């Protein structure tokens, strides 16, 4: 069975991690390759305007497969080999998913642990079920966040809260995640996917090309100076003004009707 189950409905693509027997672990399987393929396919398909990421079963994702970590006890696996495995393995997910131009909504159906939590931080919007919980728990198994969590989590919750979570490894509830800004909504379990779907439909109602440029600006703004971002914004705006969707939006506004985007 593939790790990801992909469903397409119009401009919205839903990707479900579908290995509940391993708690949707991200290592020891084909998860990395499938995430990379998903991102590559979405980048090439201008018809996709929003992606929903969720998990099957009671767990969103347990992150790394702890049982699989026993193989690192082998002296043949030197630190150099392990470092390269991370580089070519799980670290490829944040490089692909975080940089994806299409907006990604994470529907967190249950516990998001370790790399599972960091996976949610690679997405743009996080909606949590009341049964969800979140833990940056690497320290509890004697390792560090190897998948970019030390960069991702502080940008989601602030440095102080990220440090508290990373240094203790303790889990926080969905309501605590809402309070610190990790998620934007907490909903009953049966409303999780409908809520994510309704939000995706609102996003998908907008022009796809402009949406992708808008996300790129938000991403670039986190690491660039204001003057650099303004320069990039000017270039993107020049492109946007010449799109058919912009022409349609302005015309529809003047004619007091709903726009019909291509």
How would you explain this protein's 3D organization?
This protein is of the alpha/beta class and 262 residues long. It has two domains: 4-204, 2-enoyl-CoA Hydratase, Chain A, domain 1, CATH 3.90.226.10; 208-255, Orthogonal Bundle (Lyase 2-enoyl-coa Hydratase, Chain  A, domain 2), CATH 1.10.12. The protein contains eleven helices and nine strands. Strands 1-2-3-4-6-9 form a six-stranded mixed beta sheet, with helices on both faces. It has a three-stranded mixed beta sheet with strand order 5-7-8. Strand 2, helix 1 (31-44) and strand 3 form a beta-alpha-beta unit. The chain is globular and about 70 Å long.
CATH superfamily of the largest domain: 2-enoyl-CoA Hydratase, Chain A, domain 1
- Record field, number of beta strands: 9
CATH architecture of the largest domain: Alpha-Beta Complex
Low-confidence stretches: none
What oligomeric state do the depicted chains represent? single chain
Structural class of the secondary elements? alpha/beta
User: Any idea what the radius of gyration is?
Assistant: 19 Å
What string, H for helix and E for strand, traces the elements in order? Answer: EEHEHHEEHEEHHEHEHHHH
How many domains? The number is 2
Biggest beta sheet attributes: 6 strands, mixed
CATH C-level class of the largest domain: Alpha Beta
Number of helices: 11
Distance between the termini: 36 Å
Question: Which shape, going by the Cα principal axes?
Answer: globular
Strand arrangement within the widest β-sheet reads 1-2-3-4-6-9
Helical content stands at: 40-55%
- Strand portion, in percent? 5-15%
CATH topology of the largest domain: 2-enoyl-CoA Hydratase, Chain A, domain 1
Mean pLDDT: 95
